[in-house]
Amino acid sequence: MDMLIALIAGYACGSIPFGYLLARAAGLGDVRRIGSGNIGATNVLRTGNRKVAVATLVLDLLKGFLPVFLAAGNYPQLAGFVALGAVLGHCFPIWLGFKGGKGVATTAGVSFGLAWPIGLAYAAVWLGMLAVTRISSLGGICAVIAAPVAAWLLGYPAAVPCLAAIAVLVIWLHRVNILRLRQGTEPRVGSGGKA
Question: How far is CA 142 from each of CA 43, 64, 146, 150, 174, rounded to the nearest angstrom?
Fold first, then answer.
């Protein structure tokens, strides 16, 4: 029962659709009707409003970080369930018909919440790959793969199962991106198109 409650609590936090809400509040319309149709920061950036995109990125990260950080400090045995719930909430928010984002920023947040060294490893891979390739999806995919590996190597084995499960989910949500990467047609940040 405790595990289910932790999962639901994480989901409730993660399901807040900041990208959708901020775009609406800024008069940018429904972000689901442009680009990829996702509510994450990469798609919000396609509105042309960088401030709203950055705000979306920060809030999507925080909605993963805060509940996991609080759980890790008070109920460490449940932190992984909160983390998984937060990413599920972002990817499948009940408020938007279970159609959300792809979980990269929220996974960054939960990684920092589980343990800051894991978060740093995640951020280094994510931002490093993004800087080198300018392909948002590739940076995110590499980062979610790196997270459970980093957790294991850095001495946080309890975090490995939830991060591995999250990695499988996020990679599955990027399956179209992976196909485009193989075809060499995946767009780069700033070039428009879907992501």
Answer: 19, 19, 6, 12, 11
Inside any domain, residue 99 = yes
The residues, any chain, with a CB within 8 Å of residue 166's CB and separated by 6 or more, are 83, 84, 87, 103, 107, 110, 144, 147
Residue 107 domain-assigned (yes or no): yes
Q: Which domain holds residue 64?
A: 2-183
Domain count, the chain: 1
* pTM of the model as a whole: 0.92
Contact (Cβ atoms closer than 8 angstroms) between residue 20 and residue 39: yes
Contact 6, 71 (CB under 8 A): yes
What tens digit of pLDDT does each residue of 116-150 get? 999 999 999 999 999 999 998 999 999 999 999 99
Q: SS3 for 46?
A: helix
3-class secondary structure, 100: coil
Tokens of 127: 């931002």
Domain membership flag for residue 195? no
Q: Exposed/middle/buried for 21, CB within 10 Å: 0-12, 13-18, 19+?
A: middle
How far is Cα 31 from Cα 42, in angstroms, rounded to an integer?
11
